[in-house]
Fold this sequence. Notes:
- The structure holds two protein chains of two kinds.
- By secondary structure, chain A is an all-alpha fold.
- Chain A is built from seven helices and no strands.
- The model of chain A has no long low-confidence stretch (mean pLDDT 94).
- Chain B is mainly α.
- Chain B has helices spanning 8-31, 37-57, 65-89.
- Chain B has three helices and no strands.
- In chain B, 70% of the residues lie in helices and 0% in strands.
- Chain B starts with 7 loop residues before the first helix and ends in an 11-residue tail after the last helix.
- Chains A and B meet through helix 1, helix 3 and helix 7 of A and helix 1, helix 2 and helix 3 of B.
Amino acid sequence: MANISSTTRPAHLQHHFVDSDQQFDSAKLGMWVFLVTEILFFGGLFAAYVIYRSWYPELFLQASTQLNTLWGAINTAVLIGSSLTVAMAIRSAQTNNNRGVYLNLLITLSLALVFMVIKYFEYTHKFHLGIFPGGNFAPVGEAAEILTHPKANIFFSIYYMMTGLHGLHVIIGIGLMIWLAIKAKNNAFSAEYYTPVEIVGLYWHLVDIIWIFLFPLLYLID
Amino acid sequence: MSHHVHSAVDLWKIGASLLVLTIVTVAVAFVHIPFPYNIVVALAIACVKAYIVATYFMNLKWDEKFNALLLIAGILFVIIFFGITMLDTLTRGPEIIPSF
């Protein structure tokens, strides 16, 4: 094991790690453990979805007509695009290009905001139709004529919980992107040290994967 | 440092393949494949997309194998969770389905 004196240790290297690679791999391992807990966290909601879809398949056919496939598909494309730009930001860091990191993170940030704005319009449109979660569910007008199933509120409770928790993750991701963009602006990253970009990247890709499953399960029920 | 650096072209190809699969999954939904194969096809496409993201964007292909093992273990436990839960919920009489 190399004996690195304190004078040759890079500034980013914490004292309890042998070298940058060990620090990088430890951080990634920790992040993957966290992502597994995230998968199980969302797994509970997916279980609720599976249980109720198996009990009331006709409810899901009826209620999903209230979700707009076009906006769902656009949001899927937006998130895939943001995953691409996060990967580009990591590539920029690996090639010592802090400006590239900064610009790619800004694009990611913009795409995340586009996602949330679309989500906002989807939610407010449903609220306007009286489609609230749980006990507040009271559809009006055309929505009331379509949503005749006695358990219609269940579908929307599941919809709001799943997309809401996912949306919360997107908002946290936006915060993380701002933090990283400021660091990149201050030339904090290099091929030797870009752990935060890599870790946030993993988080962002998982948020993308969860939406990849939410989109067909909620919007594409024909 | 032996971190895998993707070429920009490769990243664009990965992104493009995910977009194409998104278009395919939307198109397939309009074809009206009979139940239950519509769900099978939709989930199969979603799994392929998730596999592409995990393998190439999340770098599992070049990463420490232990990280991939963690992901597989997580998925395995979700399957166990779903399986045991549905052994219960699918075998109840209609009178035991909760009112909510």
